[in-house]
Write a structure and sequence with these properties.
Blueprint (H helix, E strand, L loop, with lengths): L3 E8 L9 E2 L6 E4 H7 L3 H6 L3 E9 L5 E2 L1 H14 L6 E7 L5 E2 L3 E2 H13 L5 E5 L7 H6 L2 E4 L8 H18 L4 E7 L13 H13 L5 E7 L12 E7 L4 H16 L9 E3 L1 H9 L6 E5 L14 H9 L4 E7 L1 H6 L8 E6 L11 E14 L2 E9 L2 E6 L8 H6 L9 E4 L6 H6 L2 E5 L30 H4 L1 E2 L3
Helix pairs in contact: 9-10
This protein binds zinc ion.
Zinc ion (ZN) binds next to loops.
Length: 481
């Protein structure tokens, strides 16, 4: 009889500074049965190796706010309901994120793996693939036999990582061993923009990982830069290694690697150009090559921000003369207002602060012209508005505008504008390719690049860059012998 591998995952990055709360409905990718088998990388490798795949649920959502406990429970209960309870599972493969924060309980990844471990018992190997921005917990490393992380930011190796994690699981089953996973924790946090992997220190660190994997008994090694916009005890960077047999050499190597990262912490910098918002706009206005892109980095929808802040719009209204596209601004009431209007109609509208009522800037615009309205059935989903030199893509729901292709769905093109303002931090590879110039604006908000602007209450202290860390024991903290 074929051995059975259970496959399931919840994949969402949380931002606990965002006023949003995530629900099950935010998981727009919700795969079960054959769909999960067909679409999740790594599953084919498991089948090819002669194992039977038991599909659970794979739920994936755009980065957002903390997941509501009741909503998390719905997904977890569904996953556990599909996990055979008769002791027939031989291995577990989990494509997770690692920075899923759940209301009241903290790491949703760690709890899910613990619940699965409780059901399958202590002799069944569990392998997890995680995002580079995972905030790893000690529990997660103890409950998993194998943890493998993405090595690219922007993430272009998600499938590759999952395949590698699946292969490690197959190896554990074939060699009939239960690998260990250990982590080395670093008291340092940084925005993802400071850890890109095409160049700079992020690239250097990732290139060093294969060397760690040559150490005795080490199967795989990963570095997780962490997700800094989650206020949680497990925030910070982690070096994670998995292997079998004596771990002495592996731990020595992981600590040494951690020390190297710590010693070079000042070198983790955004590789592009970043500056204050007004300054960034002025520079692009005064003679850049176009289309130029400006990212409103603290309202970064791809890192869980609300996307409803009119902060940049306010500056643009006051100072800009160029042809500008704001793509986009989340404002459901403003989109709703356009419902019964026709292209060419002019009216008054207030934009901004529809979600984050406390912190997002609101702007009142007179004589705005409607260019286009978009519907899904009866539901109005987006509107294009024009005010003098400014074109605004207003969205009813949060959704990242990440490429020319996405713009085209709204009958817009980046090539028709001088400056395109996006709610991102670093630019998506698609926009980066067409951008003649790109500046990241250091705006205030839920994804502020300057972590000192955020009020952390739960992170372990001292933590860099907020405080100086002088305790050598904290610098590469390990839990293993
Ligand atoms: Zn990530």
């Amino acid at each position: 009889m074929k051995k059975k591998i259970f496959v399931a995952g919840i994949h969402q990055e949380s931002n606990s500074f965002s006023p949003l709360m995530s629900t099950k409905e935010d998981f727009t990718i919700y795969l079960k049965g054959d769909k999960l088998i067909r679409q999740i990388a790594g599953v084919k490798e498991i089948q090819k190796a002669g194992y039977e795949v038991i599909p659970g649920i794979y739920a994936d959502a755009c980065p957002g706010g903390v997941l509501k406990l009741e909503e998390y429970k719905k997904i977890v209960e569904e996953i556990l309901g599909l996990l055979p309870a008769d002791g027939s599972v031989d291995g577990v493969f989990l494509p997770l994120h690692g920075a899923l924060e759940v209301e009241f309980i903290g790491s949703g990844d760690a709890l899910l793996v613990s619940l699965i471990r409780e059901r399958v018992g202590g002799t069944v190997p569990i392998s997890a693939a995680l995002d580079l921005h995972a905030n790893n917990t000690y529990t997660l490393s103890k409950m998993c036999n194998i943890i493998y992380g993405y090595r690219t930011a922007p993430h272009i190796d998600i499938n590759e990582t999952r395949i590698r994690a699946a292969r490690m699981l197959i190896r554990a089953l074939e060699e009939e061993v239960m690998p260990w996973t250990e982590l080395v924790r670093l008291p340092m946090m940084m925005p993802g923009e400071n850890f890109m992997t095409e160049s700079g220190m992020g690239a250097e660190i990732m290139k060093m990982l294969p060397d760690l994997e040559t150490l005795e008994n080490v199967w795989c090694a990963s570095y997780f830069a962490g997700m800094p916009w989650v206020d949680c005890a497990q925030g910070g960077g982690t070096v994670v290694i998995s292997g079998s047999g004596d771990k002495t050499k592996g731990m020595e190597g992981a600590r040494k690697f951690g020390n190297y990262i710590w010693d070079n912490r000042e070198k983790f910098k955004f590789q592009g150009v970043s500056m204050e918002p007004e300054e960034a706009l002025m520079l692009l206005e005064q003679g850049a090559e176009y289309p130029a892109f400006l990212s409103d980095s603290a309202d970064n929808v791809t890192a869980g921000a609300a996307g409803d802040n009119a902060y940049m719009l306010k500056i643009i209204l006051e100072k800009s003369k160029k042809k500008i596209l704001i793509a986009g601004l989340v404002d459901a009431p403003a989109v709703e207002l356009c419902k019964d209007k026709k292209a060419g109609d002019t009216f008054q509208v207030t934009l901004g602060g529809s979600i984050d009522k406390e912190k997002s800037v609101r702007v009142r615009l007179n004589k705005v012209q409607l260019v286009n309205v978009f519907y899904e059935g009866e539901k109005v989903t987006a509107a294009i508005l024009k005010k003098d030199n400014i074109t605004l893509l207003i969205l009813a729901e949060r959704g990242p505008i990440t490429s020319e292709k996405v713009l085209n769905t709204y009958r817009l093109s980046a090539f028709d504008f001088d400056i395109i303002v996006v709610k991102q931090g670093y630019l998506t590879p698609d926009f980066y390719r067409i951008a003649k110039r790109f500046i990241m604006a250091l705006t205030p908000g839920n994804c502020a690049q300057n972590l000192n602007l955020l009020e952390y209450k739960r992170i372990r202290r001292p933590m860099g860059p907020m405080e100086q860390v002088t305790d050598s024991k904290r610098i590469t903290e390990t839990y293993a012998g």
